[in-house]
Amino acid sequence: MLVPRITCAVISLAVAFANAAQTLDLPLISAEPRDASQPLDPRLASFSIEFSYLTSFGGNKSAPNVLTKELMQRLVERAGVGPDIRPGGITIDSSVFSPSAPAQILDESSSGGIFRTTFGPAWYESLGVFPDSSPIVVTVNLGNNTIELARDEIQAAIEHIGLDRIRAFELGNEPDHYPGGSRPRGWSEADYTAQYLGWSTFLTRNLSLPSHMFQAGGMVESWSTKEIIEMGVESTGTVKLYAQHTYQYSTCDPARNAIATLTNLINHQNITAYLSEWKPQVAAAQSVGKEFVVGEYNSVSCSGKQNVTNTFGQALWLADTILFAGSMNISRMYLHQGATLVFQSSQQTNSPGFSWYDLWYPIPTDRYGSARAAPSFVAYLLIVEAVGSSQESRIALLPSIASNPQLAVYAIWDPAVRSSGPARLVILNLSTRLASSSQDDQDAVAVTVDLNPYIRADNDVKVKRMSSVGLDSTDSAAATWAGQSYENGTASGVEVVESLEEGKVTVQGSEGVLVFF
User: Where is the signal peptide (predicted)?
Assistant: First the structure.
């Protein structure tokens, strides 16, 4: 039962709700388990931004995007550092740097497809809106198959970003999609590996780059990190880390669109089963001493789905996905932001416009109205506070509770905060609670979790809550973290930090809490 620090009215509602909820006991794990993760990067929750739309998200030196700047600052306040930024995506493979060009020139088809992006020095001003502590992953054109284009883009990035801020260079976007397009149909992972070795070696030597500066892979479906390692991609010493892309669902064709539902998406078993398929790739990267990252991902490819990925449900999906990825030693997750690209699929559902899965809509549009954060932004606040800033925290998913398989509980050990036992606990209740659910339906999916076994006598246990009026809500102002919403990039409302009563916390369906011991 919870006692929020606000009014007696809120207290009485919490008491009534807790009495109706199912009470659960968690398995006690006091010592850090052997299968706890590697130390978590405070930048676990990072961003990929479609190359040709970076100027919309970032603005420029004279007119920076204020919404983006404020949202990034909310993350820095909690993590101590800014998230990684990867300008990339499909439009990178038709990009051309020209020192005499303006920020960017888009060559588009009659249907709105971008088939070339010419960009100049002013394009880099868009990166200025992101924190100085945000490393940049520089993706360059491989699709055009002209090494001079990649060389010019790397050289420009070094000049305008600075080598000390660049996390890695990446050759192309999703090369497993090249066959039948920019490459012959028979072009394979062996061909990619050979080209990667040749290009990365030449570019390192030609531009006097430090060794191990390239992020290899970046494939999404049919190839794997394990395969390119077996094919010798490590042989020339240019690989810094490995990346693959993931999209759990899709609107790229009618068959996949039919199963891209809110119910399927917000399902703990579906999330963990899908991400677990990447465990062999993580292990392959670690076997050669390298990090593995998900260099681009989101919930539903081909730009998301209306009333699915623009809901509060996306926040729950993000929280469970990113924390589970951290528990399986994925170093960083780069959430993709952008717009519908008509060249992605001839069968896709979405028309041109910013993606339904974006964490924020950077500029006013007819489709979305005013620039604002999406309901899912609050998930990033939960995640960065759960991970912490110490760079020593480790995470583990606690064993599932048979009576409630949609309850996901993550324990975080952080020696900088607590010497024994978990320092923080994330409880996500993925059971469905809709905005229209009756009180009886809400009571049926609520749970009360007994935390007494985790509490020491000297603990001052606090709770922050990620909530909204329902899973299906698209109202950004209704999506809150610790009682505050972030529609305009700044906190609106009074912060609510809750205390435990009798050592228990109640979590409604479609809600999450972060417990601080």
Answer: 1-20
